[in-house]
Amino acid sequence: PLNVPDKYKDFIWFVTPKDIIRKMVIDYERSQEPYSRPEPFRPRMDDQ
């Protein structure tokens, strides 16, 4: 079970491990780049 705030309990959450891993890898790689500017994470939906 995810730790979801009460105001979002009625939402349906679809999160796949692949999406989580991809975000973690992208965030890690960006944190390694010097002077990197964070950008919002946008998953690509074309590789389903």
Total count of strands = 0
Which segments are poorly predicted (pLDDT under 50) over 5 or more consecutive residues?
Answer: none
Mean residue pLDDT:
70
Q: Which of globular, elongated, flat, extended, rod-shaped describes the shape?
A: elongated
* Approximate helicity band: 25-40%
What is the H-and-E element order?
Answer: H
DSSP helical segment count: 1
Radius of gyration: 14 Å
Query: What class do helices, strands and sheet pairing give?
Result: mainly alpha
Distance between the termini: 24 Å
Beta percentage is under 5%
Task: Specify the biggest β-sheet.
Answer: none
Explain the layout of strands and helices.
Blueprint lengths: L16 H16 L16
Describe what this molecule looks like in 3D.
The chain is elongated and about 40 Å long. It has one helix and no strands. The protein is 33% helix and 0% strand. With 48 residues, it is mainly α. The mean pLDDT is 70.
